Each structure stands twice: as structure tokens, then as C-alpha cells.
Amino acid sequence: MISAKIITIGDEILIGQIVDTNSTFISKQLINIGIEVNEILSISDEKSSIFNALDNSLNKFDIVITTGGLGPTNDDITKEVFCEFFNDKLVHNENLLIHIENLFKKFVNNPINNLNRAQALVPSKAKLIENKFGTAAGMAMIKGNTLFISLPGVPYEMKSMITSSVLPLLSKEFECPVILKKTLMTYGVGESTIANQLKDFEQKLAKNFKLAYLPNLGRVRLRISCKGNDKKKLEDQLDLYISELYNILGKIIIGFESVNSIELEIGKILVKSNKTLSTAESFTGGLISSRISSVPGASEYFKGSVVAYDTNVKKDLLKLDEGIINDFSVVSSQVANEMANNVKKLLDSDYSISTTGNAGPTKGDSKKDIGLIYISIATPFETKSYKFNFGNNREKNIKKSVNKALELLFNELLKG
Predict the structure, then answer these.
(1) Phi, psi (rounded to 5 degrees) for 343
(2) Is 199 exposed, middle or buried (CB count within 10 Å of its CB: 0-12, 13-18, 19+)?
(3) What are phi and psi of 19, to 5 degrees?
(4) How do residues 160-208 score in pLDDT, each as one tens digit?
């Protein structure tokens, strides 16, 4: 198996100023061509940190990809460290300078300066990787049994270089096995319950197949992966296992991750049935409508949303009966139902979702317990309210409620 390590360079990652999305992207791309990422490391901009990270990776991995530290400022020292590590020196590359100057002429209002021109200095032994959108060229260099690749940390520059240059290079240099994976999305049943249902299934899995559980606030992703040399044989066996999972788990499987999200499936059903949807959200603050409207073509079935966070907005905009609020409080099944019914009427939709609850950390306009949540689904025929208590963590309460609301709506839509 070809092994790889990813090293992200930058103090901004270590102090939490930015999130490392580069490693996630690179990992996904490498696995698609049969290269397994065995380690991911984030390090500071210090010379010793970069050098030690390279040295500690030598001959332990087939491929090491670094991102960051290739810019024009004084704290960008990756090229200098590469020169020391490879016993090399920086040399001027005229073609690279022309590329940099052309970028400034076309896209940059400020005049080019010497720091920008210094981007044309690169290690003499490096195979350069073209950066179509930036001034920092990538570098590929071999030492011992390890191929080291250095890329800029700017995500859109790095992504373009990975797909257009790095992946073809690696596919040519390494004979990689076939790695396949599919991830099924399930909603409404916990990880332990699913694991119990799949006990016999897992025991019968072939040795080159693996099932992983990825739980997250009301949903569980099931990733089944395999590796081998015969792609067609692997695909056929993987499809058989997927069919078996559907037979065992039934309706809790919504679809495939990155292919059939639950909001996409909801949209497909609404389009097919020529029905529409609206939402009235309190503590979820518009996150349900954000998920629904993220699907291309959602305007065909999604009418809109009212984010009624404040009690007065519930009364003034959604026309909630003040007597119901006084009798039952804003955190109640009665108010959740009224919100769903009224937004459905207000926006003239066939279905609607509403949320109200005490997400925490304080109780807000209601004295009900923190963690108490009500979700209502209004259909063309009836309105149903569901009560939950997801605990004291505000973030968990909100995210789990969004997932649960979409699950409840999906189940209603399946009934027709």
C-alpha cells in the first residue's frame, strides 16, 4: 500500500485562527487514486519545526505533501528549509517570473515589488508544479525513498494544483491499488442500535472490506470501504453489501453522503408530488431553511421561512394567539403547532416545519427546562408535534434539532 503524510505549515492553524481544510481535501483526493493517508501533522512557521517534520518523515512514507509557507513575506520560509533539507540552493526561474508579472498585469492593481519577484527563486533540483492562480509555484523533490511535494496554503490555489498536476504525477510514479468506498446516511436510530442490527453482517464481511460508524447528532453515517486490484470485482461485491445493508436497515437509510443528502431527498419528493414547503424557526435560527435552500432548484418547492426568535415576532408576524402563549409558554407543543400552521397559511405552502425550545444556556422567554425542544410538522392533512430533550449543550441541541426536523419531515413525505 502506498503511504502518504500531509503536513500543514502555519501558526494560524495552530492558534485556531483558520481551520485546516487543506488536509481534508488532499486526503479525499489521494484515496480516490488508491493512496492511503497515514498521518496528518500541523506545525508552526519555525525553521526547526519544518525541517524536523521533513526529516522525521524521510523513508517512513512514500509521499509527503506540505501546504503553506510559500508566500512572499518574511515568515514564509518553506523554500529555504527545503534547500537546507535537500542540500540545494535557490535559483532564478525566468519563466516563473514572467508568469508572476503577467498575473500582476491582469489581476493586481498594486505594482509588482521585489518581494513578489523573489517568488521566482526556487530550489534548483525541484520539479516545479504550475500554479495558474498564484505566484507561488509548487515543488516536487525526492530524497531517499520519499517524494516530497510542497504546495501553497491558499485553498483554491492548492486544489487546482492537486487536481491538474499532483494527482497525474502520483498516478504515473506509483502503482496504486484500487480503493473504493461508499457512505450511507441514516437518520433516527443510534449507533449502538445499528451496530447490534449489523452484528452478523459485519462478521460475514470479506477481509478486504471494512465497515465504519460515524455518528453525529441524530444521524449515523455508515462507510463501507474496500481495497484490491480488480476494480470490477470490488464494485460488484460492494454493491451486494450495499443492497444487504438496505435490506437490514430499511427506511432509516436516506441515501449516500455527498450524493443524496436528506434535504436533497426531501426536495425530490416535493418536486415529484408538486408540493411546497415553508418553515417557522425559533431557536434553530434559520438553519433548517439554510439546509433546504442549499439544494440547487429549491425555489421550485421552498416558499420561505420566518425566523421568529423573539416572542413578539411570533405574535406580530406569525399571528400566534397570545392566550396560547400565556397558557402554555412559547416552549410547548401548542405553540409549535400554531407556528407550523400559521407559517403554512402565511406562505401558502403544503407542508411546514416549526421549532421552538430552550436550547440554552439560559431559559429565555420560557421557564421550561433547558434542552426541552418541540418540533412540529404540518402536512396537508394534519399537524404533529414532537417533544425532545437533547441535554444542556446549546450547540448540540440546535444541530440535533435541525437533523431531527428534517428526518421527521422526510418520514411524513414518504407516507404521501
Answers:
(1) -70, -30
(2) exposed
(3) -95, 135
(4) 999 999 999 999 999 888 889 899 989 888 999 999 999 999 999 999 9
Short-list 371, 358, 355, CA closest to 409: 355
pLDDT at 364 over 90: no
Q: What is the CATH number of domain 262-414?
A: 3.90.950.20
Where are the chain's structural domains?
A: 3-173, 178-256, 262-414
Q: Does 178-256 carry CATH code 3.30.420.40?
A: no
Model confidence pLDDT, tens digit, residues 305-323: 999 999 999 999 999 999 9
Task: Calculate ∠ Cα 218-219-224, nearest 5°.
Answer: 155
- The phi-psi region of residue 185 (left if phi > 0; otherwise alpha if psi is between -120 and 50; otherwise beta) is beta
- Domain 3-173 in CATH: superfamily? MoaB/Mog-like domain (3.40.980.10)
Distance CA 190, CA 213 (A): 10
What is the DSSP secondary structure assignment for residue 21, as one 8-state letter?
-
pTM over 0.70: no
Half-sphere exposure at residue 75, Cβ-oriented, CA atoms within 13 angstroms: 8
Over residues 35-63, mean pLDDT = 97
User: What is the mean pLDDT of the segment spanning 370-389?
Assistant: 94
Residue 335 in contact with residue 314, Cβ under 8 Å? yes
- Cell of residue 259, nine digits: 450524493
Distance from C-alpha of 231 to C-alpha of 229, rounded to nearest angstrom: 6
